[in-house]
Amino acid sequence: MGMKFYCLKYVSVVLFLAAFVFIFVNFNMDFLELRHQGTSTFLAPRPHLQHRFCSFQPLSPEDALEERLLLDSIKWPETPSLPTPLSREQTTDPAHSTFTILPGRRDGQQRHVGDQLEVMINMRDFQGRPKKSGGDVLLARLHNPALGAGVAGQVLDHLNGSYSAVFSLLWEGSAEVEVTLVHPSEAVTVLHRLTRQQPDRIYFKSVFRSGSVSETTTCNVCLRPTQQPLCNYTDLNTGAPWFCYKPQNLSCDTRISNYNGGFNQKLEAKEATLFQSNVNMKVYVPASGPANVSVLPKKKDQPEVRSSIVQSGPVGYYYQGAWQALSGTVVRQFSTSSDITQCLKGKMIHLYGDSTIRQWFEFLNTVLPDLKQFNLHSSNQVGPLVALDHANNILVRYQFHGPPVRSFSVPAIELHYIANELDRLVGGTNTVVVFGIWAHFSTFPIEHYIRRLQSIRRAVVRLLDRAPDTLVIIRTANPKSLSLTVALTNSDWYSLQRDRVLRAMFKGLNVHLVDVWEMVLAHHLPHNLHPQRPIIKNIIDVILSHICS
Prior knowledge:
Blueprint: H1 2-27, H2 29-33, H3 61-73, E1 92-101, E2 111-112, E3 116-125, E4 137-144, E5 149-152, E6 154-157, E7 162-168, E8 173-183, H4 185-197, E9 202-210, E10 213-220, E11 230-232, E12 243-245, E13 255-263, E14 283-285, E15 292-296, E16 316-319, E17 322-325, H5 337-344, E18 348-353, H6 355-367, E19 372-373, E20 385-389, E21 394-399, E22 410-411, H7 418-423, E23 431-436, H8 446-466, E24 471-475, H9 484-490, H10 492-505, E25 512-514, H11 516-521, H12 533-547
Helix pairs in contact: 3-8, 8-10
């Protein structure tokens, strides 16, 4: 009897231990499977263990406060809820909307260089009824095609269906107003919802391989909860999150590549009608009277007429096709390859960011005959790309930013975070750092972008602390042409929000901002994700002017 009791007790203990081990292993499966290819990572919990679908690491109190302030500063005016069924007739129609140039405040209708011009914009729906709320996305510019002149306007939402646009008058002669509806407020409602409910609508894939065995799984910043274990590739230094579903038969450290997997478009009935080119997306708003004014020369000792509704003006404008800065570094024209070479002589130029930064590498590589690109057998999309002018001691490097990266297949080992790259630089008088990061972050929660910029800013501060003479230049976002797919994944509204965050994030640091947003908006060429060559030429002139000021 004693022996039987002893055996039963022994069996019970064994079963208990087995059950405990089973539960422990399953509960910690994330940790057992979280191995990073070539680098260390901290162990982030699985998203489905969080209260939110798209979760992030906790922030320090200082960073959390900054995040809240940034979110408050970019908060968009409330947009209308969409009725069911949706009727486009009740939404903003640019054809029925109008703008009116307001009378001048001095000498009747006379306007002089240095004054500001105010325009009132009144939005209506497809039935011609005045809109009663704000939230439309509007862009405005003042231009003179004959003079090759243009300047961006500032738009103020009065939250009642009317808007003001304010322009600085910067040249003599004719100046024509142009107002563009990018999105009706109802479309913004849809864009809001997509980011909240479908932050993974653009998804990515990774190939895992070991010997002859190969598997492909889905990866993203945010992965939907499943029973499938996750591979955690969150970066140890920056905290940037990245996850892949674990392959069934391979370990996490066998990941070899990353590529854009596709786009899941999930709109409600008739919502696509809110994103129609030539109807209600990137469409001009007509004038209700004259669309242009005549600008007289600036009067000596006469005070400028300034608007009371905006506090700041543009950073620059075009005249005769060349960009003129209104403050700070004077923009020089680098018209020949020898001018550019002389400016860059002895410099190391480090370019980091998306394809809009890669454009600048390609421009320099094209216009400088002595700058020779090395064939590193790397991806032309994400790099690394290197070009050298040995005689003039000029080095130009380009590297894409870390995930998310919407591209063809690239080796996973070539995905580098900008902050980590900056921490590897010695810096100094002959070092120029240029970066731009925005276009690949539009579908994700804005918090993700804020945290990425916070990590980059910390790296910039460290770089300038150890090498104060390092020149740091930052590219802003820019407006682009829009189709339905582009609008849902990379709308100007998304770009505008991120652009505001970037400007606030680096304000007060010893860095230079290249305002590509204004440089594209003010130019007569069509908006493009990759601005056309005349705009790129002006951008390069701005950058070179900072380098050789």
